[in-house]
Amino acid sequence: MYQENGRFQMEVALMAAETAVLTSIDGMPAPETTLSRNGPAVAARSRVNLSGALIDQVDFAAAQERIRGFLGVGAAHQVVTVNLDFLSIAERDPHFRDTINRADLAVADGMPLVWASRLADQPLPERIAGVDLVDTSCQIAAQTDAGVFLLGAGPGVAERAGRTMEALYPRLRIAGVYAPPFGSLTAKENEGIVRMVRDARPGFLFVAMGAPRQDLWIRTHLSQLGVPVCMGVGCALDLLAGNVNRAPSWMQRSGLEWAFRLGQEPRRLWRRYLVDDVPTLGRLVFRSVRQRRARVDEKDNRPVTARQNDRPAVVLAERLPSRVS
Fold first, then answer.
1. 3-state SS class at 300
2. Where are the beta strands (DSSP E) in 8-136?
3. In this prediction, what percent of the chain has a pLDDT beyond 90?
4. Phi, psi at residue 174, to the nearest 5°?
5. CA distance 88 to 284
6. Cα–Cα–Cα angle for 255, 79, 15, rounded to 5 degrees
7. Distance (Å, whole) CA 10 – CA 66
8. Which stretch of 74-88, 100-114, 119-133, 293-307 has the lowest confidence by average pLDDT?
9. Local structure of 50: helix, strand or coil
């Protein structure tokens, strides 16, 4: 079924030219080429290093095509939607940072990341919100009869979210729903959840356990799950269930969605946004400016002939004779 949806198409880019300046916060260089773990890659991935987290330089359409490709390949893939809070956690937790960097697709789910990439002179095309990625995944699932499994959120939330999804996409098949108990899961409970998901044979698995738990859980069990597209979705199920509202579009575009969410849930979110994320933003801006300067210095230190060859062809053509005698 999945093979009928086309092969995996990835954005063609040269990682080697960027490797010299993509340096993680612990001093380790970014990989020169990133290949699919599920076989030979069609092309290298172009990624931006933001405080040690590698983010794919894709727009929404390209992310959508990658997800279609994952479904076509059929093997298990992990998708992460990286926001400022992810970077804050990744600074403190190398395992979580490694989970982001090993994901098959990592998108920028936050305007601060887009702005920082521009400061670093390696611009990300746009913000790709996790809830929008869930929406387009449901469209793909409805078109291809790939079931969707909803895992996590509070009691009854996933069921209500599933009904909303089915109303939006009548051909969508909800393959399963399960809300595990709060707190740490035992090995036996994890085995039961993995078996439940495998038996349902979905094309998509959306895990709503909050970061970093949801993404670490997916990484730990990815090969056992065997689901083509596994994605941590945060509060997306609560949004679909109607428990919380999404910020107006102008606030999303302006990078103020965090303020809207803080107004809705101040007791739960104040520490995350004001204590953890604000300092992270400051460090991110500083590193992005430093990265930009490193790129400029690297370019300036190249041999003169190399810099001349970078000039547009139209400029070089002015030096050529207009005719041959």
1. helix
2. 47-50, 53-56, 78-82, 105-108
3. 59
4. -80, 110
5. 10
6. 85
7. 6
8. 293-307
9. strand
How many alpha carbons lie under 13 Å from residue 118 in its C-beta half-sphere? 8
Model confidence band, residue 93 (pLDDT cutoffs 50, 70, 90): very high
> CA-CA distance, 268 to 316, in Å (whole number)?
60
Quote the tokens at residue 276: 């953890």
Other C-beta atoms lying within 10 Å of the C-beta of residue 53: 28
Q: How far is CA 16 from the centre of its chain?
A: 21
Give the predicted TM-score (pTM) of the model.
Answer: 0.79
Which amino acid, 29?
P
3-state secondary structure 184-241: CCCHHHHHHHHHHHHHHCCCEEEEECCCCHHHHHHHHHHHHHCCCEEEECCCHHHHHH
Residue 232, strand partner residues: 207
What is the number of alpha carbons within 13 Å of residue 66 lying toward its C-beta? 28
Q: State the Cα torsion 57-74-192-103 to the nearest 10°.
A: -20
| Alpha-carbon distance values, 27 to 23, 24, 30 (Å) | 6, 5, 9
The answer to whether 179 touches 155, Cβ cutoff 8 Å, is yes
Give pLDDT tens digits for 5-63. 433 333 333 233 333 333 333 333 343 344 445 443 345 799 999 999 999 999 999 99
Name the E strands within the chain.
Answer: 47-50, 53-56, 78-82, 105-108, 148-152, 174-178, 204-208, 229-232
Contact 229, 137 (CB under 8 A): yes
State whether residue 248 is helix, strand or coil. coil
Nearest by Cα to 47 from 14, 5, 86: 14
Q: Determine the Cα–Cα distance for residues 307 and 4; give it in Å rounded to an integer.
A: 47
Residues 72, 6: contact at Cβ < 8 Å? yes
